[in-house]
Amino acid sequence: MWKAREEPEQHTIVRFEEVMLPHMDAAYNLARWLTRNDHDAEDLAQESYLRAFKFFDSFHGGNARGWLLTIVRNTCYTWLRENRAEELTTSFNEEIHSTEAAPFDPQKLLLLRESTQLLSQALEELPLEFREVLVLRELEGLSYKEIAIITGIPPGTVMSRLARARTRLKQCLSKLINKEG
Amino acid sequence: MNCVNIQAALPSYVDGELDPLRNLEIEQHLQQCAACSQTYKAGQTLQTAIKTGAPYYPAPANLRKRIRSSIRQERKGVPVFAAMPWRWLGLAASVALVAIVVWNVVPRPSGLDTDQLMAEEVVSSHVRSLMASHLVDVSSSDRHVVKPWFVGKLDFSPSVVDLIDHGFPLIGGRLDYLDKRPVAAVVYKRREHVINLFIRPAAHDSDPVRTPVTTQGYHLLFWTQAGMTYVAVSDLNTNELLEFVRLVQTST
Questions:
Q1: Are strands B218-225 and B213-215 parallel, antiparallel or unpaired?
Q2: Per the domain annotation, does B215 fall within a domain?
Q3: Which among A25, A137, A149 has CB closest to B103?
Q4: In whole angstroms, what is the distance from residue A32 CA to residue A26 CA?
Q5: What ipTM was assigned to the predicted interfaces of this complex?
Q6: How many Å separate Cα B249 from the centre of its chain?
Q7: Which residues of A touch B72 (CB under 8 A)?
Q8: CA A114: distance to chain centroid?
Q9: Which residue among B35, B53, B71 closes a domain?
């Protein structure tokens, strides 16, 4: 009980794959939304799995998807810092672009034939920190608490960031719809 | 609640993050208030739009193969971490560590990697303390009495915390033995349930809370914090025992 028990090598691989491979879609989806690129997302998902495997000794059960997504996010951020540092810095200057919330009725959006394309575009245009909370909340269906753990911010901040993310998304959508219109 | 309060709570309501009581309050308000009801519907519609409209990217077909082969290559090339898990833990990125610590508080159905013998020893100790009218050597609800009592009896100073405001009154302290070594047993209560918290120096710095282990109807939670290993044991339900553990962790 006081120290970790060692396992045969093959057993560890099998157990790792049993526990973690079912969450491959979640891992890829998050990497895809953070990088906005198929090729990079695939590389980073693979790298995340390799890191998860290295740290697997310290996974003692619980929420496997949350544990894995924390590593995916971490891996993606490291990569973004090295390759697209400007995205990380612009995301902190949210005030620069923020404008008065234009009146926007989401109901209108649902009536549009190109709503999927518009939503996808609007989400991709959001700063990284907003994009990730929306993806984790709406696409992955995670709770504030789970998102807080994955992103390393307090649950209260998750709530306020989600609120700002939704406002920005509405502004973005309204801009895009007017352009189309 | 007035409209200002309701409007502030609506996003959490839409996200299903409120407790049943608050949900009920909001539902009742929404039935009466057209303005709040409209805000609610707009929020819900946006949520539906994102959920149904934004693409969820499934993993490409070859990703599984790539992952599986990279793990096997890694395994061949780097044999060290199986032998030295705690060294690896020390090297692990801090963000990953935070996640590991927190995720492991979440219970899972079975404790595969736990040592059943040790769990039984802990439970025996716990049961003995209940039976032989030897629950505590020092009986006090004051941590400033209990903590100094251990001085000179152990070569470490166990933490004793005051959780009475959270419904876990301190009962006292006791010397005990586990794994052939002296340990501090700090005793707390929840209603009529006794909680024995065993404390002893750890071999490594930190170890997340492990999955609750259940033996003979008793629940056990193990974790390591600031160089000490803790074992909480009680017949209390696991949720309240987890609450107790979290309180000890944050007060220590």
A1: antiparallel
A2: yes
A3: A149
A4: 10
A5: 0.87
A6: 9
A7: 13
A8: 24
A9: B53
